[in-house]
Each structure stands twice: as structure tokens, then as C-alpha cells.
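Mods, move this if it's the wrong board.
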Amino acid sequence: MSTADDVLRRHGPPPWFDDAKLGIFVHWGLYSVPAWAPVRAEPGVHVSAEAMKRGENAYAEWYENSLRIAGSPTAVHHAETYGDAPYSAFRAPFESMLERWDPAPWAELFAAAGAGYVVLTTKHHDGYLLWPSSVPNPHVDGWQSRRDVVGDLGDAVRARGLRYGLYYSGGLDWTFEPGPIDSPQGFLTTIPTSPDYCEYVDAQVRELIDRFRPSVLWNDIAWPTADGLSQLLVDYLTAVPDGTVNDRFGVRNEKVAYERHYRSDFATPEYTSFDDVKRFKWETCRGIGSSFGYNRAETDEHHLAVDDLITGFVDIVAKGGNLLLNVGPTGDGDIPELQASRLRALGAWLEVNREAIVGTRPWTRPADGDLRFTQAGGALYAIVCASPPSGSTVTIPDVPDLGPVELLGHGPVASTRRDGGVVVEWPAVAAAPAHALRIGRRAVGV
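Not the wrong board. C-alpha cells:
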């Protein structure tokens, strides 16, 4: 008889997950009402210990923690804007908004962006639940939405042919361990490990599995105990045979950064790509701006430019990764135009170049200068992360002679073999952040 650990060691990411390439992360909760954090000039740069001590956290979803750090930018902003109102005061306007919230426009936008799956934060670090759970919080009465946000968004997403995954903060819950976290060590010392918390999170995740059958089980930070964890994950994979598990179910110091933990199917770096293809599946998550939760202080300059979003996505896919691109809806239930416009632009690019991205795998080398490579069905895709002028030539070095060359969205292009590579005569086409060339013919249905 195999143990639960043996089952997990043999498990890997299902083909649909490797094929999808693009997921949409949704950070939404009470923190979306104040929607504020100090703006970070360089997204994804790790905060120094001194900055943490001062509460200079650019993640708006950490509003409650930053508020508890005396003199922090968030504490000052809160006092000026809301006086001495507690964080819990944001619950009433959020739940009032939920009565009129419509998930359909979100799902339509995510589908238009070309995403293959969506992952919703069901419980973030503040402990507030986005579904009416039968497992009540023992410390804060009714700390959950009356509306079933998890179920309603899931129905809308799945109706448009997308997979649906669920995020759960197992490693932090400020209703059990309030912190504040003001040092790197605080990430570990503030993880609740009491028996009542271990029972609480196990019961809630099991409820999420039973009720919503998520295609992705995405835990954050860590898991409070190893006891029963492997069996929980095996039970999930039994209930959802084509489900997949991320790498943040490590217990305290078990997780090795950017490596696949044996209890997981894929690694989850943030705001990161790599120099080469990895031996494990990975998914990088990032906001379109510097925050995951909506930050009203961010302007256009703090959001990814469309060109950078598209070329960054291409680079991730060429190296075997997925992009879990975050949106942070407002406290009014809307996706800000600064985010929505970028999703639409990405979707428009994918509509033309989808076959060079979705369902592909890395080639023998991922990159060469401005070129990124993928392959599928016997065809090679060379994606030019630039916009060559009409009449110029593009050289693709060291590629096999697979057959004719076609520019996706345009058609066949003139090319010649030279010195073991291909020289393409660039046609008159509209400028774009990236252009995909297919070398050879892709097998039908692949």
C-alpha cells in the first residue's frame, strides 16, 4: 500500500496546466475598500528589513498588518482618512457592494485576455472569507461574506470554458495571530500553529474542495502542521483527479525557494523569470502594478507597459513557465481600466499568436537575443520580441530545416537557409511588441 507521501512524489502538473500558460489571479477583499499602500518604484523588489520595520509594504492587501505598525505610511494615511476606525469597519461597505456585484464582466474580461484558468483569493491573511463557510471563525463572529463570492465567480468563469482555482492563506491568519509582521522573521513566528487553527484550516480547505472542486489548490506562505497534510492533498487529488497543487504547503522551513517541494506540482516565484528552462514546472505570479490588492495610489507609470507585459509573458513561456497575472478589483466591484486595458491588449496579441504559446513546450534553447523559442506538433516557433522594419531581414541562427516559414497573422514569408539557420525577409506588417514565426508545419490537433 502506497503512503500519501509516495502518491504525492509521483504526482505532477496535469497537461492542461502546462498547456494553459496564462492564469488570472484575483486579490479581492476588505482591503479593497481602503485600497492603499505606499507605492514601490520597482515592482517585485524584496523589501529590506528596515523597510519592513517602518511598515513600508507596497502590497495593499497587507493593509491591516501595515496599519498595526505605529508610524507606518499606512497608519498615517488611515488616521488622516478614516480617523480611528478599525479595519473591521471596511466590512459593511464591502458586503453592501456584494449585493449588486456581477461576476459576469470579470469572467468575460478574463476569457478575452486569453487566460486558461482563474485563481481567486478565498481567504487572505486578514482571515476574512469570501464564501459563507460552515466552519466559523472562533475569534471574530461572522468573519465571512454572506454572498458566495467563491461559487458565483466559479460559475461565471467555468461557463466561459476556463478552469477555476482557489487561493487560501494557510500560513497567516491575523484573527489567530495578529502580529504585526515587521521583520523577515515575523513571517515564520506569526504562522499560527495552535491545534484549533490546524483543525480550522483543514476543515475549511476540505469544505472548499467538497463544494467547489478547484482545478488548482493554491496555498500561501506555509501550512501550520505536517500532521495530516499529505493525506489532505491526496484526498484533494482523489476528488479532483486533474487538479494541481502549488509549492506553498511547506511547513515552516521546509520550502526551498523556487524549487518543487515533494508535496507540490509546481513552484511559485513572484515577479520573477529565469535565465533558462527549469527541470520543474513553475508559475510566476505578479501584479500588473506593484501590488496584488488594488492600490488607488498607483498611476499608469506604476503599471506594466503593454509591450513589457507581452514580451515578459513570452519569455516566461519559452522557459517553461506559466504567468499568473493578478488583477485587484476595487471595493466597488470593478476592475480598474488601468488593469483591464492591459488584459485586453494581451488578449488581442494572443488572438493572433496563440498557437506559438498555448499548448507549447520549451525548445532545446529558450532564447537567442530578441528571439524566444517554443515548439509543438513538430513545428518550431521563433518569437521576435521586437518589431523589425518592413524590408529588413531577421536571422534565426542554428535551427533545423523543418520546412516553410510563416508569420502568424500574416501568412508565408520569404526565407532562405544560411549557415545552419534561417534568414527571413520581413514583410510589411503593423508594429507589435512581438511577432511569432512558425518554422515547419504543426501536426493537426497538436
